[in-house]
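Lab notebook, bench 4. The sequencing result for the construct came back, and we need a structural model before the next group meeting so we can plan mutations. Quick request posted to the team channel:

Model the 3D structure of this chain.
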Amino acid sequence: MKRLTKFLAATAIVSASSLKAAELEVVHWWTSGGEAAAVAEFAKALDATGDHTWVDGAIAGGGGTNAIPAVVSRMLGGDPPGATQFNHGRQAEELVAEGLFLDLTALAEEEGWHDFVFPSSLLDACTLDGKLYCVPVNIHSWQWIWLNNEAFAKAGVDVPADWNGLVAAADALRGAGVAPLATGSQAWQSSGLITQVLAVNVVGTEAWRRVNVDKDAEFAASADYAPVFQAAETARDLSQDIEVTDWNLATAAVITGQAAAQIMGDWAQGEFAVAEAVAGEDYTCLPGLGLNEVLQLGGDAFYFPKQDDADVEAAQLKMASLMISKEVQVSFNLKKGSLPIRGDVDLSAANDCMNKGLKILADGNILPGADMALTRDTVEQINDLMVQFWNSDMSAAEVQEKYATLIGRAE
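Done. Here's the predicted structure in token form:
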């Protein structure tokens, strides 16, 4: 990969008196109701400085499906945005290695990021060769199922305590005109549901680590890992009653009672908040499908492409500082449904679901996210395979065999 533009080397100190106000174009993929409310907190914080202006560059498409390729193309074409969202982990690995992002090490040291970011692995995921290139803004985890309490009452059954209870209630739900499970048709949704949530909770965390972290293809193809794909067949069947594309439309189906449940990350909580639904009353959240209370350290981070403009660089550093500040961490994450990356903030306003997540985090029941364990290329190949399985009659045995092959090729 060749650098196609000339970038100004980052400086440790820039005199404030010599700088001018700058507009900062920020590319992200937060376009649902809850996401828009959350990202607005970042925009307000930057605009409130009076020195710099947030220029919103939202590109719709869950998981960065459209935004990430667009950003990479712009960076390689010499037209980088001021800031861009990636997920924690290895998504931006090659761009970082090419020296295309602003080095935030001096800022992190000045503000003591390593003293308050918890867990510290979030900063490790932003670090290459001892230098830090991104600011983590939240902790998201795939490991949740969301249940509409009224839907189960309509079906005459108790709100289930776990995944097995949902499976058992499926016939009663269908008899009451309620879809048991809502899942969007995008590849990342079916892939996360199967290879992250079902895998972790059906066969356990150690088995998941063996496949995703150790890249043990033989184990991935074994009878011990087969229950993951058998459960995936069940989930595919439970999702046949409702067809939507976007994840937030599946969440909306649960909020309105059209569907009883959704397996989705805790970002779904932001949609419940916008709908003014109350955790523990209107809906129930079960970490680890109620089978295994564990969180994965996924989430979002912002990188700052190098610019040939000292004013823009000053705005980038200011934005990084604001994003990780106490006040903004609280206001953003309360609306996003995610956990803050600081262990020293006041979360007295947290709801039932966030408190469950905070307890799991405090107890240390955590796993790395898939984006930390696997390269983006491998993740995309797995996504393609899982959406093919989800939208066909491919058997559990066949998808397991193909999946194990991909794990065998993973780096």
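The first helix runs from residue 33 to 47.
Will bring this to the meeting.
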